[in-house]
Amino acid sequence: MKSVMLFFFILCCITSFGDDEYRSFTDLQGRTIKAKLVSFDSKNGKVTIERDNRKRATVSPGIFSVEDQEYIGSWIKIFLLKDGRSLKIDIDSSEKESNRSNPKDIERKMKNYTYKARLYTEKKLVTHTLTLENKGATDFGNIGVDYCTFIKRKGYDGLEDVFYCETGTRVGSLKPNSEALFTTEELPIFHRCRIISVPGEEGYSQDDAVESIEGIIFRIYLADNPTCYFEFSKPQYFGKKNSWMQYNPREGLEKQGFPRE
């Protein structure tokens, strides 16, 4: 107990500075420090915390208030989820053809001639299935999975390429030594091409507007404590270059999987 008191005394004597990752912890005697949790040792049941002066110490969660112990318990579950030894994560993607729109004839005027074209739109429905395999004895309870899909659109008569984000949520339970599946909603994307007829030339096909999924970010959290979560992405590097809801969502026909008129 003396070592614990000395630890709090040292930490409380150091001036803190702002850092969003740090929070206030209170011990059973009512003393408060600002620190963050760093790691958990499952063998001795202790956590390593880092004070906002970057000094670290390993302590038992039992020295903190009941409220902080509950927070630490949630954090430990997330730590174990992130630990590859406790959880195996697989992501599978699938797509299926959906209905094709009726062809639409258009006429466009160029500088020297007028050409006619027939527009075809093919829609695909894309889903991602996240498999979480709990290889340990921890009961994680209800798990929430938020996902943010990044869609790139090209085309539209020379307009700049555009990125969009679409989000969704799934909730399920993850018991010890079990497996849980989380399948995203079907996300429609489109590919519109035009069959062009030019006077005096053979007709040819040209992409008019094309959407593709560039990546998806998953956020796993405890359903009873959404503030405890971690993120990962597919492809793996994607989350390092992009952040959650970085772009606006699609609207109208495009959200349904058809290009704007």
UniProtKB/TrEMBL annotation:
Domain of life: Bacteria
Name of the protein: Uncharacterized protein
